[in-house]
Description:
Elements: E1 4-7, H1 12-18, E2 22-25, E3 28-34, H2 49-66, E4 74-81, H3 87-98, E5 104-109, E6 120-127
Parallel strand pairs: 4-5
Antiparallel strand pairs: 1-2, 2-3, 3-6, 4-6
Amino acid sequence: MSTRQNFSSGAKWEDIVGYSRAVKIGNLIEVTGTVAVDDTGATVGVNDAYTQTAFIIKKIETVLKRAGAELKDVVRTRMFVTDISRWEEYGRAHGEFFKEIKPCTSMIEVKGLIDKEYLIEIEATAVIN
């Protein structure tokens, strides 16, 4: 039987809502929806879709490393965006990290995210070979 490992970011919302930054079971890692907020709680890249996307992917990479994985192990990303007309900005940053890896991905426009400064939220799934 595979052991479950939960990885916390320490965010207060994890206990309030009941979630983990990432969960690893066997060779599968799921990374929760991630936004461009730094360790102090400040939004990174206000009104800058490219900067927010790049920051989020680096944040995802950090938790993947804690779980024993790398970006190359990502098989799917899901991008929830507040303005699909800015797809090229999100896509440019995503492509800089995933151009060679080419995971399955979705980019879905949503009405809004938990804070109006957040332009994008990204989830990721990784499988360690």
